[in-house]
Design goal:
single chain; 187 residues; alpha+beta; Gyrase A, domain 2; 4-stranded antiparallel β-sheet; 59% helix; elongated
Length: 187
């Protein structure tokens, strides 16, 4: 019986870790005023009929704090890469000089920074919903185990350990969001 509960806690932990990883992936896409190649992770280019991530057809480098440089491996991919960046709605305009594509990031206004913080908090709330969903599933397993013959005090101990796990993951999410918020609000 305790093996089933250990398995339920293990599954909950795995699911909560996935929520944290998803949060970190989504937060990488949020602009902080500094140029990072991660901003272009979601951009896909039509590469000979298949949609391919921009990073797989070009070298993406940071020229300075506010400028990215994209050098496609093949010169005929300049136009499709430029169109893909424009189509990704990143709020930036690529500049093509025939050799490389440059993206200059404008400085963030105070209002835009506040909007980005709201966006980050919304993404964090989605992650917390994922964590609470994993908790709910694990709690249901604990209650079912008690119905199936697990002693009630053992069931309560499992529920307490599931709740502690949930609290720990929620605290991790809050810490990640606080760091991102500081990063966004730093001028």
């Amino acid at each position: 019986m305790s093996e089933e509960m250990d398995m339920a806690i293990s599954l909950a932990t795995e699911s909560m870790n996935e929520s944290i990883e998803r949060l970190q992936r989504e937060l990488r896409k949020v602009r902080t005023g500094k140029a990072t190649p991660n901003m272009l992770d979601s951009v896909t280019v039509d590469y000979y009929g298949s949609m391919t991530p921009l990073g797989q057809i070009a070298n993406i480098s940071v020229l300075d704090a506010r400028t990215l440089s994209i050098s496609p491996w093949e010169k005929n991919m300049l136009q499709p890469a430029e169109r893909a960046i424009l189509g990704a709605n990143l709020g930036v305009t690529p500049q093509n000089d025939g050799e490389v594509i440059r993206i200059s990031l404008p400085p963030l206004t105070e209002e835009r920074r506040r909007d980005l913080v709201k966006q980050v908090k919304a993404i964090a709330e989605e992650s917390k919903v994922g964590v609470r969903g994993a908790r709910r599933d694990a709690m249901e397993s604990a209650k079912q185990a008690v119905k199936d013959g697990l002693p009630e005090d053992a069931g309560k101990r499992y529920e307490a350990s599931i709740q502690k796990l949930t609290d720990d993951f929620s605290a991790k999410i809050d810490k990640i969001v606080d760091l991102k918020e500081k990063d966004i609000m730093t001028v």
